[in-house]
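Reader question, answered in our methods column.
A reader sent in the components of a multi-part assembly and asked whether the whole thing could be modeled at once rather than chain by chain. We filled in our standard form and ran it. Here is what they sent:
COMPLEX SIZE: two components
ENTRIES:
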Amino acid sequence: MTEAPDTRTPQPGSAPARRGNGRANRRLPLARETGLVLAIAALVAVTWLYNPLFLSEQSVRDILLGATLLTILAVGQATVIVTRSVDLSVGSVLGLSAFGSASFLMAFPDLPFVLGIGVGVTVGAACGVVNGALVAVARVPALVVTLGTLYVFRGVDYWWASGSRVDAADLPETFLGIGRQSVLGVPVPALIAIVVVLAAGHYLRSYRSGRELYAIGSQPAAARLSGIPVDRRIFGAFVLNGSLAGLAGVLYAARFGSVDATVGTGMELEVVAAAVVGGVAIFGGSGTVYGAALGAVLLSTIDAALPVLQINQFWQQAVVGLLILLAIGLDRLLAVRAARRLRAGRHHGD
Amino acid sequence: MALVDVAKSFGAVQALRGLSMDLRPGRVHALVGENGAGKSTVVKAIAGVHLPDTGHVEIDGQRVELTTPADAQRAGVAVIYQEPTLFPDLSVAENIFMGRQPLGRGRRIDYATMRERTEDLFARLGVYIDPDRPASGLSIADQQLIEIAKALSRDARVLVMDEPTAALSGTEVERMFAVTRSLRDNGAAILFISHRFDEIFALSDEITVMRDGGFVSHAPTAELDIDTVVRLMVGREVTTLFPKQEVTPGEVLLEVDGLTRDAAFEDVSFSVRAGEIVALAGLVGAGRSEVVRAVFGVDRHDSGTVRVAGRTLPRGRPAAAMEAGLALVPEDRRQQGLVMELSVQRNATLTRRWALSRLGVLTGAAERSATRSWARRLHVKAARLSDAVATLSGGNQQKVVLAKWLATGPRVLLIDEPTRGIDVSTKAEVHRLLSELAADGMAVVMVSSELPEVLGMADRVLVMHEGRVTAELPRAEASEESVMYAATGQREAAA
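And here is the structure of the entire assembly that came back:
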């Protein structure tokens, strides 16, 4: 599972697609992923030409680490969006679990640090259970539920921290090591992110319950008639997303060492943006986690490249916005062209 | 399988009142009744969508509780619903095998096998649809075929078919019947629902008739004939099904010249006079609906002109078309004709919301009074006009769509599949209404896949094949043979 560390790996997207021997329908997402890889490559190339230091070892490490959290969050978010839901609370969940795992390790420095990771992921999963239960069982729209829990989880975070913060000095070295060590030059958090992407991608592609998530997002009423346990699946997607946000929180704590109650504030929109730029349809049913991950990498690379290119940071936001509009416009164009091709195909086929 | 004294009500509406029926292995049991008679509720009780209020379902003499569709599927029930229930974003093969995908090593989905099995299923049905293409963009007929393939793939012991043929052409229906018969011979119990009597009599072994949610009669098909069944369904004699009035055509109201839309239809020209009913016939997918959509301006055409009473319409502007006196009753009433969540009265007045409002304020009372007269004229059956239109039966929904467009006082009525999925007596009502409208000087363009309707109602028949008009037949020359020849693109009839 240790894929090439390069951010420009098209393999995850193309491998399963080829196995499916797909034509019309698999071509679209693949086109999106290739486009993203090209966009990232172009951006890196231009920035590198402008300032060769951009590809120094330290700088690449920073970019990878920066992309890690967003990528993990985008993978979880994509899983939820595919079911025609959305989870706006991920920034708060990340903050809560970062604080949870850090303060657990501060309180029990002698316990193995793996328990700290467990605590963080469990906190995230618990948040996912709350979201999932409200959405799937109480049938409240996800947008409203997670907008509410965004504030609730953040409030809990503030209450728990009550103004205090955890500093790197309070945390065991082994734990902080997660954020600092590398395997074959790749930072450990980036490796974890790659494993998450591949595992989630494989699950959504090759397992029944994974495919059912797409079915639910594509046509909820038909999914019910097909005997798919719709509520259970949506619940599961939220718990998965919560756990991943929890994992991201742990990695945040391990990387930065200092954690207070504001960690992750405002991240949710960037996460949704990464998924949308990555080709995950906001109304569910289509898109891949590979695309979402590449979207996250692209957004992080933009964040890193614009200062190097000495572009005013005011433009940074505008560029991200433009990118979202571009992505949506591209989707529309491809959809229209695909529809025309399919219709023409039908006429010949008959 | 048996239904024993099953009853179900939705709010104040009693949809099903103590119905009992048996489905036996190796038999095709037809269920007939007017729209709103409760047939769909029967289907949903068997499919595990609705749990009956009283009564129960038995399988092999054992009482079973089918509380979810999954329960019903486990019990060996497969259902082909009237409206296709596909996932537009997923591939055809995935649509067929969703939740039952063939698994390989480590419980992973075996895509190659799934693809092969899909091709086998299509081979049995004698059609070819690319298993890898997404379901979106498929015609209704192809979607229906996928539903059939889905049911077929389940090897069901009980197969429920709720108007499976509504969108299919003649040859596809024949193939489906062959498959249905082979399933029956293999011991499946089949419940067949249709509004086409020729199909019911060709396929079924026994017929149960329902009316107003209750049981009316049950008898072997051999002991019944069409007239008897119709009388039982309606509970009264149906006056003639096609009450065509002879009208002397007036001035030309609609002229279509060289209309072309890329990949849909080419060089379509025709004209319609006041008082005329012109039918657009042809197989599903021939481009008929696309033509009327372009005439009305929902879709832009690429070249050609549309003139109403001599004035050329701008392309792609439905509002201008409405102003010029055009009305379009679309094919798919759920998606295109109605806003299902809104009330009957609001739907019926949607086209006139400005005319009905005072100083920009639209009151419920104004909507209600405007709707009431149309509801009475068209015999719309609704508990309250403020109920959501989704609660009505198919036939009544169609009447609401008609009311909505007739209320604009159109001079040219474009109507696409006016009687799809509606019952005999409503059909007769719709036909009578169309006749009356033509007699009052309206020009009517009717797209229809039902040959008896085309032949019975039209003054002239335009036949389309693969996007082109292949024949224009006056009433006297139109026969089943001549229309089918032209519709299948054979030359004999094109002359």
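What stands out: Chain B has 18 helices and 20 strands. The CA atoms of residues 138 and 475 of chain B lie 33 Å apart.
Send us your own complexes using the same form.
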